[in-house]
Design a protein that fits this description.
With 159 residues, the chain is mostly helical. The chain has helices at residues 6-30, 35-91, 95-105, 110-117, 121-135, 140-151. The chain starts with 5 loop residues before the first helix and ends in an 8-residue tail after the last helix.
Length: 159
Amino acid sequence: MTEPDENVVAAVIFTGVALLVGTDLLADAGSGAADLHLGAEALATVLALLGAGRFYRRARRARAEAVAWRAQAEELLAGVGRSVEVRFQAWGLSEAESEVALLLLKGLSFKEIAAVRETSERTSREQARAVYKKAGVAGRAELSAWFIEDLLPPADARD
């Protein structure tokens, strides 16, 4: 279960207050309450409804921003995936080597790669060596760094 949005909770609370005060206003109006009392309750009802509307609009805006951010993040990740595939092709990796390289980038151990691919651990190690050789890197750390370097802003831009 997800945690409710604070804006939605506030909108519900304000709506509840408006309903309670509005109900009391109607009951008081029928019993001949003073105009000042009725005016105060009417003002409280209107303010509660305005508060509910404000929080509801904020919740909708936040939800729309989250949807837009999620779509942008998915688009960026898809772009990264395409860039990785292009680089694998440029290095001339076979399909099996590409799969091993991707699993290495995801941080899986040789044992885990072997289990995922249903091969031996020795086969995974040999395919990893082929990836490193074709990529011109010394090992997993350099392979990962090759891709991470392009994702991070230059050091002088981070200050």
